[in-house]
Amino acid sequence: MKLVYSHDNHFIVGNIKNLIEAQGIQVFMKNEFTQGAMGETSAIDSWPEIWVFDDNDHQQALAIATKAQQGADSPDWTCSACNESNDASFDFCWQCQQAK
Question: How far, in Å, CA of 94 to CA of 3, rounded?
């Protein structure tokens, strides 16, 4: 088993887990319920973590996690069909469904 990803935000870790699992890679989340232990342990030690069961899947899972985080700081985009502003994470315009 190898560690793929860790973050203090459960929602981000859960999203990464879902993206990896959608590609058929078996993973599990460690420290899913340990945030209540903060203060007793260091904060970083209680962050949720994503681990792959099969070491052969580690590189592919790591690539998925890295790609998911790359778009996090991208700027919003404007639809060429309807001029609607869209979040960077959208591949299609929310207003008219035109592709990015």
Answer: 35
Residue 96's alpha-carbon distances to 18, 62, 77, 82, 90, in angstroms, are: 27, 34, 14, 7, 12
* Residues 31 and 38: beta-carbon distance below 8 Å: no
Bridge partners, 2 (sequence order):
52
Angle CA 55–58–61, to nearest 5? 145
Cα 98 off chain centre by:
25
| Each residue's pLDDT expressed in tens, for the chain with a length of 100 residues | 999 999 988 899 999 999 999 999 999 999 877 665 555 666 667 789 999 999 999 999 999 999 888 766 678 899 999 999 988 878 899 999 999 8
Q: Whole-model pTM?
A: 0.65
Q: State how far the Cα of 6 lies from the Cα of 12, in Å rounded to an integer.
A: 9
